[in-house]
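Lecture notes, unit on binding sites. The following record was shown on slide 14. It pairs a sequence with adenosine monophosphate.
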Amino acid sequence: MDINETIQSLRETLNEWSYQYYVLDQPTVSDFEYDKKLRELEQLEEAHPELITPDSPTQRVGGQAISAFQQVIHEVPLQSLQDVFSEEELAAFDQRIRENSEAVSYVVEPKVDGLSVALEYVDGVFVRGATRGDGAVGEDVTENLRTVRSIPMRLEHAPHRLIVRGECYISRENFQKLNDERDLAGETLFANPRNAAAGSLRQLDPKVAAKRRLDCIIFNIQLSDGSQFDTDSAALDYLETLKFKVIPHPVRDTLSEVSQWIAQLGDEREQYPFDIDGAVVKLNRLAERSVLGETSKFPRWAVAWKYPPEQKPTKLLDIVVQVGRTGVLTPKAVVEAVRLAGTTVTNATLHNQDFITEKDIRIGDTVIVQKAGEIIPQVVSVDASKRHEDSNPYFLPSTCPVCGAPVERDEDGVAMRCTGAECPAQLVRHLVHFASRDAMDIEGLGPAVVKALVDAGLVKTPADLYQLTAEEVAGLERMGKKSAQNLIKALEKSKSNDLSRLLCAFGIRQVGSRAAQTLSREFQTLDRLMGAAAEELTVVDDIGSVTAEFIVKWFASSQSQHLIEALREAGLNFRSTEEKAGDALKGLTFVLTGTLSQMTRSEAKKRIEQAGGKVSGSVSKKTSYVVAGEEAGSKLTKAQALGLTILSEQQLLEMLG
Ligand code: AMP
């Protein structure tokens, strides 16, 4: 045998084994044997790269990534199907058919819930595969489809040109595996096998698509030169001989037989390896199909029976409450394990308190669960006839199950939210808000750094930020020494922020930066604000009774008090820098330099601020006055250079009155 023949024979063997495994589901050799043969072929192809062809079994792992998909104009459009939802609609369809055709028989097929594709072969070689798109124009996903093991890359005894149509899908089993892997990797989960298949088929990198274990089942010949068939079922039988994976396609003669089959498929659809969302009924005789023709959207000779989402009764064992990142409490039903739409279900969504109240869902109830396209099924209703006498209506807890802080109904009236200032479930969000520009404005403390700090266990409350050391921060991933030092500096700087920033940073409901500024100016110190009753608060501009209530409750919570004490200890400024009274120095910025003789620098700062002025650490054009004491240094020089007014200590005292 020459090398060509050896390669050919290896490919044939491997193709046959793949066919047995992926199409017939009846492997005759072990994976090990398959891999060994494949390796043999790979080695030969490595030594003779000129002999590699795109249809070789070695090319199934995915080739080069591309930047965009090419458009494909479908030679034969990929039509949609008219839906029917009732026996009456189905009977009307049957009647229309019988008015026009004689000796009617139907092909009945499961409607696979995946994505339609067209596969094109020239002289038996797979040359192109495209998505359905809008039916007229799709996308060229040839390289991704090459990785689908059940799609033959080479056909024996095929017509010169052949285009077949099928449905690409991910089996439920592979879907489960895929989501398990994504879960482990911390990636977002696919909602259902259909979404997973769609995402995979439209991967620009075929290597990714190859890992998704897509499958493809064929249900139609779009175009075939050379072969003629009288019926659809004969055409599909023929595709089976070409070794395609073909949709089950039994033939039924009467309407009642069709209905029976639909009902049976409905009962058995769980047993199929793929999601089935309907049953397709197609006129079998091809000549009669062309007489009936089509509308602009659908063929007139076929309909799709749509199954309602599958529902099952099960027992509601418990309701667990989760606290999301934004503090919203979400109730989740724990149910007795039940098989639903091909997966084992143990949890169901309950949405919120209103949902539970409206349906009067109680622990111990028999509930009907349904799965319709989402990962977690829903509770649709309660079977009240099976309810225990001693059951009680369910209410979400009034305190947070994570931190114990009071729970309050949201402004929108639906969500229940934890108000805990230190609630671990909301920590990242709290910290990001705390550091944000309107709040404490801590440079370098964005969401990524916050998350890294929390993940490393370094920060459990906003107050912990002020205990961080540069070494700890530098130890974080992607954090340089320099940026660590800068972060510590920024934190240090934020300690002297105006009280209004801290108030805003607390994240009290309805207290944004504006309200925080008004409050801090009015009450001057945090302690005075904390002591204020709701009536005192409403006297202040912009503060309504609802906000006042939120403020009073927030300060009353033990978590808030704990946080405030920790921040006090860390040395944060709890005072307003904007004086309520005294506006003698309003709008003026002072820079202090050198040693003062009659007061300390900080006393001077305080007195200036009390008179409405501001004290800045550095000289700039915005500086109104520079107060120069003994041995004034570089700041004085700079002030002179800028032509600023220089004051003596005595002059400052006179201004202060
Ligand atoms: P719809 O998307 O609801 O208009 O239904 C039409 C779609 O059903 C087609 O585009 C196909 O992708 C899909 N389909 C799945 N299985 C079959 C089948 N056995 N015969 C025809 N179409 C099918």
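Take-home: The first strand starts at residue 71 and ends at 73.
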